[in-house]
Fold this protein.
Amino acid sequence: MTDTLNANAPTSWPARLWRILQVENPDDSWTRWLNSGLTVLILVNVAAVVLETVQTLADRYAAWFGTIEVASVAIFTVEYVARLWTCTYSPLYRHPWIGRLKFTLTPMALVDLLAILPFSAGFVTYDLRFLRALRLLRLARLAKLGRYSAAMQIMARALRRCREELVLTAGLMVVLILTSASLIYLAEHESQPDKFPDILAAMWWSVITLTTVGYGDVYPVTPLGKVFAGVVSLFGVGMVALPAGVLGASLLEEIRASRQQLDKRCPHCGQPLE
Amino acid sequence: MTDTLNANAPTSWPARLWRILQVENPDDSWTRWLNSGLTVLILVNVAAVVLETVQTLADRYAAWFGTIEVASVAIFTVEYVARLWTCTYSPLYRHPWIGRLKFTLTPMALVDLLAILPFSAGFVTYDLRFLRALRLLRLARLAKLGRYSAAMQIMARALRRCREELVLTAGLMVVLILTSASLIYLAEHESQPDKFPDILAAMWWSVITLTTVGYGDVYPVTPLGKVFAGVVSLFGVGMVALPAGVLGASLLEEIRASRQQLDKRCPHCGQPLE
Amino acid sequence: MTDTLNANAPTSWPARLWRILQVENPDDSWTRWLNSGLTVLILVNVAAVVLETVQTLADRYAAWFGTIEVASVAIFTVEYVARLWTCTYSPLYRHPWIGRLKFTLTPMALVDLLAILPFSAGFVTYDLRFLRALRLLRLARLAKLGRYSAAMQIMARALRRCREELVLTAGLMVVLILTSASLIYLAEHESQPDKFPDILAAMWWSVITLTTVGYGDVYPVTPLGKVFAGVVSLFGVGMVALPAGVLGASLLEEIRASRQQLDKRCPHCGQPLE
Amino acid sequence: MTDTLNANAPTSWPARLWRILQVENPDDSWTRWLNSGLTVLILVNVAAVVLETVQTLADRYAAWFGTIEVASVAIFTVEYVARLWTCTYSPLYRHPWIGRLKFTLTPMALVDLLAILPFSAGFVTYDLRFLRALRLLRLARLAKLGRYSAAMQIMARALRRCREELVLTAGLMVVLILTSASLIYLAEHESQPDKFPDILAAMWWSVITLTTVGYGDVYPVTPLGKVFAGVVSLFGVGMVALPAGVLGASLLEEIRASRQQLDKRCPHCGQPLE
């Protein structure tokens, strides 16, 4: 409460700008407007990047896509410069040079830089494939949304919470993929040398089978290969899904924890339940 | 108990009809007969709509399908008019005009209207495709069943209960699909320009792979694309399944809760919770 | 304990036979021998039925398969007659006629009858396809194993425990399959009239997609169909898996309950935990 | 603590070597160096085996692969001999002959022997396919990693913990696969005699369908076959996944238990449980 009052109290306007950009007071109307605006801009950008890869749209609306890109980079550059300029008002980056340098190296500042870089880099290279990669890099602007939500922190906590289980189950996953790839390679290499030329190719089969995707581009045809594949499918499927399952469960727990932090109490007598 | 007695007490017959149509007393024999009859009629209708799309059946039993349709629309129209006429006996829609208007705008009344509309609309259009859509719209009659069961309410409560988890995991899902589509587009566009012409097409691949459906109409063929697809499959599969898993779990909890409603009380003060 | 003593006490030998056949005392050596023998015979039978469908094996080992069949039917017939004859020693089927009739109508007695019937029926029909079905009916002998294990009872209890959840989620499953089949039919019927000729055919697509099997024999090709299929996959996959998940979870709970029935207590102080 | 001191106290150096090889004191710097070195060597070996199956790499880097193989076998042989020589310092294998024999028969000693055997066996056979199998057997070196981690013990405990559930659900799985294979064989044998020649072939379909892999190499085409396949998919999918799910859950529990070993005590008397 006190903080909110301070935020509205007369301060130098660069400090005010810093507070707005850092979303220190989410109920402030300026903050809300700026956040909504930037969120919309990011979403428009992502949509533009995706749609620009459709050749017919890219040809017909070339001007629109160009305008969106130039305007976005302009706004994101202004935002980046504003952050860099005002960051000295934070106790963390007080020093004019060292503080600003420290600020540019924070993850979110790097993401902000990454969001404007592809545009500038476009002037110095003419390699078509690299240009396409650069253009897609603009999708990294999506990561800017992380600043405005708690989702990133929740994801990080979820990863930290299940680190040990993740390492162990991922190890088991690797062993299973390697073993099943070797077995199928042994059984099928003779009959289908083009589909199972080596164990690396067999690992592609392993991953696509054990995740139950099963495109059908490679599958065993020999009786021995089918027996191996059947046994591996029946027991391996559950094992390979463990890391993803562990991470998913951890994420859900973290989401729930962040929501229910306050109280699990009887609404009538106020006693804690469980 | 008192209510049941009242229901059997002599009242004006429009009020009686309203009570029967609203299933206010499920043990009343008239109510039971009407409900069973309408349920059977709805199921017959759904079966008819599905079977009518089979050309040979549509040709041979055209008369039957026509009769079922006309009879159903007649009965459903009578039902709709009866509800509209008697609804003023409910304290919610007492006013002859405003009350009836309010009633026509309730979700269930709209469903009832939707169930008889396709028939009438069939007279004003001759576009074949639109006609087919209209005919299928009769499947919406299935939603009329929602009136007679608690299933709809359970579904709604389940959605409300897991709203926050759903939004967060759905957001993660979108980011994952977008990211994997961009990566595969970058890796495969050169080699398979017809399968991965743009990111929208690559998103089809992402969805079909991450849900582990894996039709096999599109799959990566380059080594880089296979590595991307493998990693995305192994870790993305669990993440993309989160929203569906959250919703499913919430639904099960809600079903169980509606069954065990009785003894969920605070162990300290004995008051019912929620 | 008293029962075990009684079982070894001198009784009439038909009563003794009944007790052995009913496995009233699993530690009795005669009982154990008979059970093991019948279990092995059943497994040999199942293997024979499966292998007999392989043409080369059927030709080469025709004599063996014939011998196994005749010997098995002989033994199973003796077993059935012995049960029918001695069942009057049970307090449930005391009456010579009515008791025996009641016994023949118990589920397990019907299974026993079904296990010897296909052989006899083979004499009266010459329709090839029906004969094949009859021969496979011998696989029903597998159900005889249910007599010797508690698995069947556990399965029955698991089904009863989750009946309500099963009905509701199966209903939701049907609605989802119907809805997605109608949508895909609308979107794809024009472009692929051979793959999606009617809603029944589209339901095959729905089931194979929503269970994530995804053979790849039918899949949408129009943009609208792909959007429908994508949304249906992302959210429907979790919903359609609910009945199977509910049943599986219920089964596991039942297995655990039947194992831990005795005690969940601290091994040191004897206090119940939780 | 006392043990650590003892480990550093002056003892005969063969005893010291035994302790280092057995990782009795993980904080000892010699132990750490040896472990890290052997772990890296094993991973390099596995990578070499996998990459050697790629023809182009095998041709170009033949000398490197040969060197890695010879060096590894040399080091693993030295390791094996050192273990065999010093094992008499363990109270379990004190006797010079009987103790050493007992040691060679422990699972980990057999794995160590298996890791050096393929090389020697390569001299006595010239059968190409057998040679390839032998070469892949070198992947068993991966199992040597089990010595340095607790992962193997966790896996063993997880298997033991869910033994009963595993047996019951695996039995159910076999019954389901057999039943669905028989049904599909009956329905499809006439129409697709090449895809469903016998029940063994139909079991391949069952496994690939029930695990939801669904390659698309075999699928039903008759209406009856599609109905069978649909019902089997909808309800069988959850059942067949049970063993893998049970094992996976048990493994996760075991991982968590090994992490939280500390505070699992009876809330009444404070004694540790299990």
Q: What stands out?
A: Chain B has two domains: 13-145, 159-263.
